[in-house]
Specification:
The chain is globular. The mean pLDDT is about 90. Strand 9 and strand 10 form a beta hairpin. Helix content is about 30%, strand content about 30%. The longest helix is centred in the last third of the chain and has 19 residues. It contains eight helices and 15 strands.
Length: about 260
C-alpha cells in the first residue's frame, strides 16, 4: 500500500446541525483549559468524550495508557456518539477541542502520532468559520463543518482563529487497522495552499532593498512586527503567527540537518 498523504478528506460526513445541537449539552464546567500555555495564546480548551479511565480530563494521557473508556458526557450526545461509533477501529482519546475567536495555537508537532507509529488523529469540524486558518507544513488545509479529515500531525502544524466565532472540532485518536487503512486510502488528498507570507518571503529573498529594511533586527518580536508591516505595504495579508511559524520551521530544519 502506498504511503498515506499528509492530509486527506475521508469518505465520511456527518450532519453539522446534529453535532452542534449536542454542544448545548455541555456546561461551562465541561471545558478544561489546555495545560501547555506555551503552545497557544487566547483560549484553547477541551471536553472529554473518551479518556483514560473515563475521566473528565481531555488533556491527559500518553502512549502507555490502554484503559480508555467513554465518559458520561458522550452518552448524553447522541450525534457525537454516532460519529464515534462509525469508526470500526480501536479508539483511544476522543474529545471536543475549542479554539475561541482571536486565539492561536503555535507551530508544533505531535511526535507520538503517526501512521507508521500505529496511531493517527482524525478531525471532524463541528463549528468553524472562514477566518480559521489551519496550516500543515505551511500549507493551509480548509476543513468544513461535518467533514472528516485525516491529518499527519507528526508534521509541523498551527492554527489561528481570525474569525468572530469559536472553532470546535471533534478529535478522535485511532489505532491503525485494516479498516482505517482502507478509509485513508480512499480519501481525497489535499495539498493545501500557501499563505500570503510565502510569496512575500520569496520577494524579500530577491530584493536587497527589502532585505536591508529587515537586517539588524535581532529582537524576534520586532522582526516579526516589521515583517508584517512591510508585507502589508506590498499588499500581502499575513499574520504574526505566519512569520513566527516560518521562523520555527527554519530553526527545526537547521537542527534536523546538523544535530545528530
Amino acid at each position: 500500500m502506498p504511503d498515506p498523504p499528509k492530509a486527506a478528506r475521508l469518505p465520511l460526513s456527518f450532519d453539522p446541525a446534529g453535532l452542534q445541537s449536542d454542544l448545548a449539552v455541555l456546561g461551562a464546567g465541561e471545558w478544561i483549559a489546555h495545560f501547555n500555555t506555551q503552545f497557544f495564546t487566547g483560549d484553547w480548551s477541551g471536553a472529554a468524550l473518551r479518556s483514560v479511565a473515563g475521566s473528565n480530563n481531555p488533556m491527559y494521557g500518553d502512549a502507555s495508557h490502554t484503559d480508555f473508556a467513554d465518559t458520561d458526557l458522550l452518552q448524553q450526545c447522541q450525534h457525537l456518539r454516532a460519529v464515534v461509533e462509525a469508526f470500526a477501529c480501536p479508539l483511544r482519546s476522543v474529545r471536543l477541542l475549542r479554539l475561541t475567536a482571536g486565539s492561536v495555537i503555535r507551530e508544533h508537532r505531535d511526535y507520538d502520532l503517526g501512521y507508521e507509529l500505529g496511531e493517527v488523529r482524525i478531525h471532524v469540524p463541528v463549528i468553524t468559520n472562514p477566518g480559521v486558518q489551519f496550516y500543515l507544513e505551511n500549507r493551509r488545509i480548509i476543513m468544513q463543518e461535518g467533514e472528516c479529515w485525516y491529518l499527519d500531525l507528526n508534521l509541523s502544524h498551527r492554527v489561528q482563529n481570525l474569525g468572530s466565532t469559536d472553532r470546535v472540532h471533534l478529535v478522535i485518536d485511532c489505532q491503525i487497522n485494516d479498516w482505517l487503512r482502507a478509509l485513508i486510502a480512499n480519501g481525497t488528498p489535499s495539498e493545501g495552499s500557501e499563505s500570503d507570507y510565502e510569496p512575500f518571503r520569496r520577494l524579500v529573498l530577491n530584493d536587497t532593498a527589502l532585505q536591508g529594511q529587515l537586517a539588524g533586527l535581532t529582537d524576534r518580536a520586532a522582526f516579526i512586527t516589521r515583517t508584517v508591516d512591510l508585507g502589508r505595504q506590498y499588499g500581502f495579508q499575513f499574520e504574526p503567527s505566519d512569520v513566527d511559524g516560518a521562523i520555527q520551521a527554519a530553526r527545526r530544519a537547521w537542527m534536523e540537518r546538523w544535530i545528530v
